[in-house]
Specification:
Number of helices: 9
Distance between the termini: 49 Å
Low-confidence stretches: none
Number of strands: 9
Strand content: 15-25%
Structural class: alpha/beta
Mean pLDDT: 96
Shape: globular
Order of helices and strands: EHEHEHEHHEHEEEHEHH
Length: 244
Amino acid sequence: MTPTLLVVGASSDIAEATARRFAAAGYALQLAGRDETALGAIAADLKLRHRVTVTVHRCDVTEAKDRAALLASLPVLPDVIVCAVGLLGDQRLNETDAVAAERVMRANYEGPALLLGSLADAFSARGSGVIVGISSVAGERGRASNYVYGSAKAGMTAFLSGLRNRFGKTGVHVVTVLPGFVDTRMTEGMTLPPALTAQPDEVAQAILRAVERRKDVIYVRPLWRWIMAIIRAIPEGLFKKLSI
């Protein structure tokens, strides 16, 4: 039977690239997100290019009623889910505006985690399924430059690790994706180091490979693994004096 991929946050650059990669590999697609117009355009293109079944589902993952409605509306329980929901926000604004900070925290952790937890239970009842969560290297240590976003991603990373541990002896597999910098609309205008900056299709290819090979945690650019190991190893007394 044709495998099915659910992409949440499907209008983002990484999500769209991922949908294209999986469609080329023969997956039927379920695209979920807030912008139905954008999703409809992506779905039409995917159908035309890859001759696959594509359904569109409106969902704001930060809303409980939307998460429940999404699960109820899916024509079939997917074989794989990729959660690409994320909001970078503005750190300086987040430091003074609790509403803005809450929005970042809910978009990067609370909403996605609650949805993935529900899907994990459904996958477990069926006995199979792959959950892919896109987290961030920013969650590996809090830094003054982005600690609101980073703290939410730290929560997401911990949640995915917990799911992986909980379901490790079942047919449910959980993948944590740590892309590092990615050249997307979200990072537009930022000066990014080329050696550490991936393209959306590079992330998508890494996700498909991780699903096929049942990887647990992947750094899209392997250099990030060593960079973050060094950053985590810096003693706290020294770390708080640094600006990184």
